[in-house]
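Please annotate the following for my students:
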Amino acid sequence: MINPPVDRWIGQSVPRVEDAALLTGRASFIDDLPTRAGTLEAAIVRSPHGHAAIRSIDIAEAANVEGVVAILTGAVIQRLTRSMTVGVKADVECWPIATDRVRYVGEPVAIIVAENRYVAEDAAERVAVDYEILPAVVDPKAALDVDAPVLHPALGSNLINERLFSYGDPDAAFREAPHTIAIETAYPRNSCTPIETYGVVAGYDPGEDAYDICANFQGPFSIHAVVALALKVPGNRVRLRTPPSSGGSYGVKQGIFPYMILMGVAARVCGRPVKWIEDRLEHLSASVSATNRVTRLEAAVEADGRITALSWDQIEDCGAHLRAPEPATLYRMHGNMTGAYAIRNVAIRNRVVLTNKTPTGLNRGFGGPQVYYPLERLMQRIARQLELDPLEVVRRNLVPADAFPYRTAMGALLDSGDYEAALDRAVEKGGFAELLARRDAMRAEGRLYGIGLAAAVEPSVSNMGYITTVLTPQQREKAGPKNGAQATATIAIDPLGSVSVKVASVPQGQGHRTVLSQVVADELGLAPSVIAVVADVDTSRDAWSIASGNYSSRFAPAVAGAAKLAAGRIRAKLETIAASQLNTTPDDVELASGRARSKANPDNSLSFARVAAAAHWAPGTLPDAADQTIRETVFWTPEELTAPNADDEVNSSLCHGFIFDFCGVEIDRQTGEPRIDRYVTMHDCGRILHPAMVDGQVRGGFAHALGAAFFEEYAYGADGSFQSGTLADYLIPTVMEVPDLTILHHETPSPFTPLGAKGVGEGNCMSTPVCIANAVADALGVDDVSLPLSPSRISAFLADDEPPARNPKRRGEASASAGQRKLTGEGAADVAAPREDVWRMLLDPATLNAIIPGSHGVRKLSETHFAADVTLGVGPVKGRYKADIELFDLDEPNAVTLRGKTTGALGFGGGEGRITLTETAPGQTRIAYTYEAGIGGKVASVGGRLLDGAARVVIGQFFKALANHAGGGKPGVVARLKALFGRRA
């Protein structure tokens, strides 16, 4: 333990060093970096299906596109790599590309490498993949059914891991409790959608058998080993680099590593560097999302609301593959499944399942939202069922102030806090009494108004060993212990006495350079402005460890703490050198205001630069005790983070902040729209290093949490089709939807970190969704609500059941397959031509080729069977499709039904339409049409309204073109067609 000195710079909101470049467009992101001459670019062919066997992949047409250099399929990747490491003991392989089958929409099937991205994208549309559609499973509970479709046949089921835990004596506690109260919740999938998507530039040196990979990855941490093992080279043959700036991550960019492997192999095959930048559609459908979790939580409860035991049953949906570091989301909170409460008896059942959805990964607050949503909903249920004050139920269960450091039943060591004092401060300063009065007044007016509460412990600085809790004690013993949270920092001094700082933590907006300059400035008696901080990462240059990286809020407590320790070591040496030059003792020397001076006689001083640079200019003059001051590197790991023990007890994180939130929410009776009337959040994040940035982190986490509460959900159809693939369907809050909030603080410095700081960037992602849900449930007076709390979902509680829709099927109409986007429409067009001529046009391939939008050719397979090659665009999705069209129910020349299907790299579809021809006057025909279709794949991810509108436009264009051809829109067309038909007759 190190007690921090009185500071000058830490605790002040100095201007951010990073902002000048970021706000003026001068920051260097992955796509801004210059590339070597000859760098190629890649595009990825992705699966349009949720689950399908790959019969064949025909790349011949794509390979013939000018500018294409290589096409890589699963067979190539398998030959040059190993299956990626899976975090559990299971008979399953995990490749970065589909091999025998596809298991989620968006899974890579082929990599096209070309001279530029435009050529690569064009060629990708020409890759023909023959799929055999397989049944899909998207519900985690259904995935456990004995007859559920199995994603990985070698595994034998979709259950990839199960563990049971018991702490204390939960069985006895439940037997003796006067009340047993349970809740079941389903936390939905969501993601954090950073402004910048994934990006990789990879090179390969055949002489060294080495890879050089630059990516906007937030590692390197343990994933460096996963990448090296997959590429079949030693770790020192994989150089990972990051750009100076990253456009956000929030954990999501951990998921880039499979693409680092793919582009590394592409560079090896092509013999040239390869660049790939993900587009937004790819990012939404195929990067990573947070896990969705089904939880049944049961509590043994005393009459006064005190909880004596908890029983957790958690089903974690990790998608199609269990990719490292998963199941981290499930086990990150394992040491603290009791939250802020003193509960000594706990039973836990954890099951990890696979479904036909994108693989999951880290997402801001990972693990916390999935735990606190059921836990804090349960607290409200207890109060409601026992008719108690919800605030008192929370208060009575809090860990008492005199218990810190507090060891939970599962092994977590809560470092510091006074939860009740923080709660009381929030209630007083946040105006809780006034909010209660406001609720009473608004309800008296007949308005729907509710108050929600949430208490949470925010973990930070994860113990690297917590993930191994997924293994049995015997498996852990065989594998060897894993624990700790090593952070690194290097302080360097150049010949002019200038100070530089280097850490192995990639910034994604947290202000690394600003805070680190403050920390080091305080240690060395300098101004932050004169200290240079380098915050990008290069594994071949920098000091780093397997725990290095930017995740689980470890920057302030661990990384900045390591910088303080490194600067402290340099300071001690400088004091020794200055003492010899000032003719005094080291304990009499202080570094302040850019000088080294005697405390007893401040006039006896030297400039900092002269003392600091002595190791460069005159190393022979240095005292023996000083060694050198050129460079000092610290590797710091806290002793409190030990490996899980034989009883499965684990201190899963080093620091534990405290959050207490309350809010008032009003619901519009007519629309079901919720509105946050007031939101108060109290934080104990230990020692605050930069108040303005702490405020920004709280507001940022709150904005993300609003998305989870009200807007965001990864939606899948029953067939695994992804249905929220654009920002028209996957809604995220903007500044217009984020209200102001009251932020309060209660500081209890951590005794376990060098600066006394704890994490603060993830807390509201954990507390806010459930706080809002509790308020909505209170307003509606119901027990159960589900996220996201959209107006349509809330309206179901307000409106009477509607009668079933009366919409009988039209003749020849076919419904969309389960899970597909359904499109319907109808219309009419007037044609200046007899019905007989129009009828013949509909059966003529030359006419169809001329009037079908985007047609590249129509072939007549029989009198009523046609094949076409078309390019269609729907909003941001444009692609080439092969269409197969059959005509049946022919009633010449009055009516015909068309049945068709399309397939392409961007999706698939099928449907039916009925066309009727009515003579309105001699030589005049009205064409009326109705249709119903279903589409899937990437194109189905486009917003429903956009799709429906686009379908109407395309079909409208078809009939308008037909009318133009038949009615003289193009001179001589009717006469030419009559002549053509006449010759055929």
